[in-house]
């Protein structure tokens, strides 16, 4: 049997590479400009490899317990690892994926095609523009995992963007975002202040070393108007193969401190990761 070969392609926003997993048939790692973006196992789509992806999925599970179908919007597509996982564990879900890179969409469709009955629709659009045009009260969970290279774009960090996210969510819906920062956490604290100005409830999931400022890394923000089951979230995060902590309430308020809400005119992208923070060999 011929071993699959890596696939290299120039896309709209960089150089994408699909690398086969030598240990698993039909499993692939997607990188863009050397930064890992997605890991997909076509034979086991519920399997997630990346720590941040597992935490996004965990937040989604705790937002809507059970295995019933959901309406989910994903801002940022990559190789569609999270939408594939949701389709596998919650059959019948209707999912919209918004990806700004048309070349990446074409690459993934060609080499990692979705099943015809996946319930996943992919849109080529800017995440915020699509969100601002989407129907109000139309989705249960909104997952934001948008990186330009290794940075969250500035226009997806602001108060008007947070309000657009809230408008699209149904009452009781949950916003979940993958962010990245390191001490002294100016960017992460600004995001907590911004989303705290819109949503009544916030929680943050991250590896303890990141929260203690020992290293740069991912943190998952969870926001809603209804009380979050932070006890269940904390139990599952602690028991994961990649253990994480959940901060909420007074501890999260102390972490946020006096950070200011981000306006469009003041917005900047998330910080540049240190060399090697997300890269691979």
TrEMBL record:
<protein>
    <submittedName>
        <fullName>Fused MFS/spermidine synthase</fullName>
    </submittedName>
</protein>
<dbReference type="InterPro" id="IPR029063">
    <property type="entry name" value="SAM-dependent_MTases_sf"/>
</dbReference>
<keyword id="KW-0620">Polyamine biosynthesis</keyword>
């Amino acid at each position: 049997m011929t071993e699959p070969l890596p696939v290299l392609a120039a896309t709209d926003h960089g150089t994408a590479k699909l690398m086969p997993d030598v240990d698993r048939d039909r499993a692939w790692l997607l990188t863009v400009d050397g930064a890992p973006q997605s890991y997909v196992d076509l034979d086991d789509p519920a399997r997630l490899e990346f720590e941040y992806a597992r935490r996004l999925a965990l937040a989604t599970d705790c937002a809507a317990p059970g295995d019933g179908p959901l309406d989910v919007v994903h801002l940022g597509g990559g190789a569609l690892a999270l939408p594939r996982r949701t389709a596998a564990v919650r059959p019948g879900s209707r999912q919209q994926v918004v990806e700004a890179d048309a070349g990446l969409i074409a690459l993934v469709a060609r080499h990692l095609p979705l099943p015809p009955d996946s319930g996943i629709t992919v849109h080529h659009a800017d995440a915020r523009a699509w969100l601002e045009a989407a129907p109000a009260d139309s989705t249960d969970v909104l997952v934001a995992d948008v990186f330009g290279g290794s940075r969250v774009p500035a226009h997806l960090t602001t108060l008007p963007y947070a309000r657009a996210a809230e408008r699209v969510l149904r009452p009781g819906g949950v916003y979940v975002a993958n962010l990245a920062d390191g001490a002294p956490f100016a960017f992460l604290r600004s995001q907590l202040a911004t989303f705290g100005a819109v949503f009544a409830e916030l929680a943050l999931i991250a590896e303890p070393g990141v929260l203690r400022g020992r290293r740069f890394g991912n943190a998952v923000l969870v926001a809603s108007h209804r009380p979050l089951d932070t006890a269940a979230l904390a139990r599952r995060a602690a028991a994961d193969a990649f253990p994480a902590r959940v901060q909420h309430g007074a501890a999260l308020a102390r972490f946020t401190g006096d950070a200011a809400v981000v306006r469009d005119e003041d917005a900047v992208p998330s910080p540049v990761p240190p060399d090697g923070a997300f890269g691979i060999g």
